[in-house]
Amino acid sequence: MSFEFTLEATDWLARAGTLSTPHGDIQTPIFMPVGTHASVKGVHKDHILEIGTQIMLSNTYHLYLRPGDETIAHFGGLHEFMNINLPILTDSGGFQVFSLGQMKNSPGSKESGETKSLVKITEDGVEFRSHLDGSKHMFTPERAMQIQANLGADIIMAFDECAPGTSTHSYARAAMGRTHRWASRCVIEHTEQQKIRADKWLHPQALFPIAQGVIYDDLRVDSVKYISDLDMPGVAIGGISVGESKPDMIRILDAIAPHLPPSKPHYLMGLGTPEDLIEGIYRWIDMFDCVLPTRLGRHGVAYTSRGNIKVTNEKYKLEKEGIYTRPEYSTMVSRTYSLGYLRHLFKVGEMLAGQLVSLHNLEFLLNLSREARKAIMEGRY
Predict the structure, then answer these.
(1) How many other CB atoms are there within 10 angstroms of residue 159's CB atom?
(2) Which of 95, 273, 290, 358 has the smallest number of Cβ neighbours within 10 A?
(3) Any idea what DSSP says for residue 7?
(4) Are residues 82 and 215 in the same domain?
(5) Strand locations in the chain, DSSP E?
(6) Co-location of 304 and 355 in the same domain
(7) In terms of domains, do 235 and 118 share one?
């Protein structure tokens, strides 16, 4: 089957569409919960489905290290491994290769407490050491496609170089060039892997290449044009949530919006606050993901219709009402549990505390996505 994207309505640059995949249709705009290790941290699979999740993510780097992509292939791919019938997207591992490539020296050494880069970038790919045991590994564009073919996600990402947000223009341009050449190699290997999957009667996968360019408008525009010309089913924008300021993010999205292909879904990687979704949807973005909702939830921070709140604050000790939301954004957690009870769970160290607030944050963003889609369909976004 093909990965068809049907545009159903637009309201200025905000748009509502449907992306068809082998494991179901995805109505956009959409937020995608992140299951780094093939599990959304602290949230049961049944609850993920119950709150209306349409697609979730898993991480290539982490699953390659543990349990290994060949192990997951032995189970029949991520869907069978996790026992979930839901579209899945895997990232390429590129961001983790670079972000986890800084390791502290061993205690007692001359440079104890300092960090050093254990990543070596070449034209062929990236050599890195595992953050788990220091073992040496190599990711190339071809290897990233092979690993993700084993993982069996519906949507897979091209291998890219996620340059630091502080990069100079010259280095950003060089990194962008490598990303483009690697993306072209990913397309070639992806085509071969899809032939192999077809021969085994396995479902097809859609490859999304990633546009880079750090905070430089000219590079971002060049990158979006190049990535769009590869004629894959979707376009991703990476490197905007690795230290860049919000004004930089907005400026970059404004710069690239006119150059994004209208017939394909646009995926903004790593953004997941309510404000990010509102601003991104307004600027032609269809898909979002982030670990922040569950990370904040585990630390007692809840999304509300009035901004974030810290559930453990003393002022909520006697609060009988739940987490505040407007009716259209209410969640199972906000309707069921008082803030006073949630605060109690955190104070006594109950695991349930972080699970509940994480679940609330995810459902809040999913509800926001649905309300945004409704507003677009009604021409009032």
Answers:
(1) 30
(2) 273
(3) E
(4) yes
(5) 5-11, 14-21, 24-28, 30-33, 56-58, 88-90, 102-104, 115-117, 120-121, 126-129, 136-139, 155-157, 206-208, 210-211, 235-237, 266-268, 287-290, 301-302, 309-310
(6) yes
(7) yes
For the record, the structure tokens of 150 come out as 């084993």
Closest Cα to residue 368, out of 119, 153, 65, 51? 51
The confidence score (pLDDT) of residue 98 equals: 73
Looking at residue 320, its pLDDT comes to: 98
**Which structural domain range is residue 362 located in?**
291-381
Last residue of one domain, picked from the residues 266, 290, 314: 290
> Do 25 and 108 have their domain in common?
yes
- CATH assignment at residue 45: 3.20.20.105
State how far the Cα of 255 lies from the Cα of 219, in Å rounded to an integer.
10
- Select from 258, 255, 282, 253 the least CA-distant residue to 269: 253
Q: Residue 11 corresponds to which amino acid?
A: D
278 and 178 within one domain: yes
Which residues are tagged catalytic?
Answer: 91, 289
pTM exceeds cut of 0.70: yes
Q: What is the pLDDT of residue 109?
A: 31
Query: Is-contact 239 10, C-beta < 8 A?
Result: no
The model's pLDDT over 195-208, given as tens digits with 9 standing for 90+, comes to: 999 999 999 999 99
Q: How far apart are CA 61 and CA 96, in angstroms?
A: 6
Give 264: exposed, middle or buried? Use CB within 10 Å, 0-12, 13-18, 19+.
buried
Q: Is 33 helix (H, G, I), strand (E, B) or coil?
A: strand
| φ, ψ dihedrals at 297, nearest 5° | -60, -40
